[in-house]
Prior knowledge:
Elements: H1 17-20, H2 26-33, H3 37-43, H4 58-62, E1 72-75, E2 81-92, E3 99-106, H5 115-126, E4 128-130, E5 132-134, H6 142-150, E6 154-156, E7 175-177, E8 182-184, E9 190-197, E10 202-207, H7 209-213, H8 218-221, E11 229-233, H9 236-245, H10 249-273, E12 277-279, H11 287-300, E13 311-312, E14 318-320, E15 323-333
Parallel strand pairs: 4-14, 5-6, 5-15, 12-15
Antiparallel strand pairs: 1-2, 2-3, 2-15, 7-8, 8-9, 9-10, 10-11, 13-14
Amino acid sequence: xxxxxxxxxxxxxxxxxxxxxxxxxFYRHLESKLDLGFVRDLVRSTYRECGRPSVDPRxxxxxxxxxxxxxxxxxxxxxxxxxxxxxxxxxxxxKARIILEVLVTPADVMENQPFLDMLWRSCFRWQLRPDQxxxxxxxxxxxxxxxxxxxxxxxxxxxxxxxxxxxxxxASRFTYDPERDEFRCPEGQVLRRKTAKxxxxxxxxxxxxxxxxxxxxxxxxxxxxxxxxxxxxxxxEYLDRVRAYHETAAYEKAMAKRNVGVEPLFGEAKDWHGLxxxxxxxxxxxxxxxxxxxxxxxxxxxxxGRSSSRHRTAAxxxxxxxxxxxxxxxxxxx
Length: 334
């Protein structure tokens, strides 16, 4: 059963979503200029007359470029949206700044998604055994950290500070007791294990409702009448290990090295190799960005594939001091 999309917005917290969308929003202009009413007639025969209404088929056409279907919307630093790509690099942490791997993706692919594939491909292609990988907070997902640490590679990545995302006491204010498998709140009350949510990868701990409701700090801790809850990741041991790296000189050196050794590569790619603007040619789509990525890769990757920062290991493979990961936006002009 084919559904239709009607622009009807109900108030939410005394605000309408319609009011939150700026008048110059890209989709407002697109909707006013592009009539996609024919799409419903075109695909109507593929829907059944009964069942739950589907997403309006017109919606899918708003999310693609009419001239470059491989591109995706990306936010510009100075505001606004533009169709474009991300150019992802894996860079050796040595002084030579050798680019080990390049991948061009639509702009809606976050840098943490191809991280592991690029890392393992670099290791396989160049026969490398990294000591560490260095990236920004975006790379610090549980999946990435667990996979990297399981291979005895140090994950030098900042961890997101979730305490700043809530007006109440953050999880860092609660002390975990591994022997009892329970938390203690700032007032010393116990939060016992309630349930494990494996689909979310967390264990939920909850305090007694009566204890929380009588606590003088409740207003700063929770607004729930059922008792404060704290979640602990199933991969908490890995996260604690990475958090401990943050206190080491090796971690500080790796992050500083990334800022001065890896970041300039993308500025050079923009200024010298055309990464800032990749022009679309004929019916080709991602080819211009891929060409720029390949050109930059050739510039910083000698044929030997070796860097002064590597040394032979007992197992015969090469070792890296560290590898930095970072994408850069590659915009397209029609």
